[in-house]
Amino acid sequence: MTLVWKLLKQHISPLQLAGFLLANLFGTWIVMLGVQFYRDAIPLLTQDDAFINQNFLVVSKRVTTATTLTASSNTFSTSEVEDLRKQPFCKRAAGFTSSRYKVSASMSLQGGTPLQTELFFESVPDSFVDVQQAEWNYTPGDENVPVILPRSYVALYNFGFAQSRGLPKVSDGLIGMIDMGIFIHSRSGGAQFRGKILGFSNRLNTILVPQDFMDWSNERFEPGRTDEPSRLIVEVVSPADDAIARYMQEKNYDVEDNKLDAGRATYFLRVVVSLVLLVGLLVCALSFYILMLSVYLLVQKNTHKLETLLLLGYTPARVARPYQLLTIGLNIAVLVLAFILTLLCRNYYTDMLTLIFPQMETASPIAALGAGCAVFAAASAVNCTAIRRKVIAIWHRKA
User: Fold this and answer.
1) Residue 182 region, left (φ>0) first, then alpha (ψ -120 to 50), else beta?
2) What is the DSSP string of 247-302?
3) Residues near 243 by Cβ (< 8 Å), separated by ≥ 6?
4) What confidence tens digit (pLDDT) does each residue in 8-50 have?
């Protein structure tokens, strides 16, 4: 084997092999990176909310230019709520209760620089919130108030405030380390509380507190005032029911359907990843073609030597083996380098994604490695088969 290789390697062009290596490396890397990114990103778009059931919809009245100019009310009357409850697709419905007083808050992580801002509170009946009753309650006089924050607020904090000031990023695992001060201001006085953050919601774009706290605080700081709800939370039989869309369109209601947005984003992600994989496979195919041309040219230059070896009794398999091992070795190098590049790129984009999705957990790279191995196996099989056929063709011609 060593003597055969020494005889046949004289016409090998390092530049041609380097061209194949780079082209195949680029194509394989694109394929592996596309698979890995899809595996990392798809859970962010399809994950369930930990606090709000998927059969719950948030309904509000559509705000148009006409309603804005005429200062028309966008709240729901009692009759409108009752009409919604009578619909076949509706199991139950209730209004959001809003705070009637001013609220400001400060948030910091382990005593760091606090973020101070004005906020507002809302609540829904406790039966709509999927939290243990022992955690989701408030007794007048308690200093701690359970709070559920929208995940979009956390993304703004991580991407804007924390990043610009070099502060730690907030994630689900750091909930217990967040210090939240709540300050209530009203005509009848004020009070200070400590927010106990239970988690982050993907579907509710509001700061949620227990109904008990909302009822008590509204009566304590703004007594004698009642407001109709501007939003409703509705439990439906099936969110995919066409009757829901027809009813909302007829009543000019809007549904805050984050699931629909996530579905569109998921579809778009799949299309983009498919296109990226297609480009990567095309580059790999071109690199296979480059290698085949290089090997065919090498075989052609060594035709006389190959004929001599075959006449001396060497089998076609033994003569083709040095070229096959060469291509397999190059493909192994491509696979290893592409996998390393994929891991490096994953570390780069996960740092950016965790600013927007603090709960992000990277997927195992096994799927990406499997895609790379599939490309390696296909390339090696095609190359080895083509080389063997070329050598057999020379053998038959001499025979």
Assistant:
1) beta
2) HHHHHTEEE--HHHHHHHHHHHHHHHHHHHHHHHHHHHHHHHHHHHHHHHHHHHHT
3) 87, 88, 89
4) 566 566 776 777 778 788 888 888 888 888 888 777 665 555 5
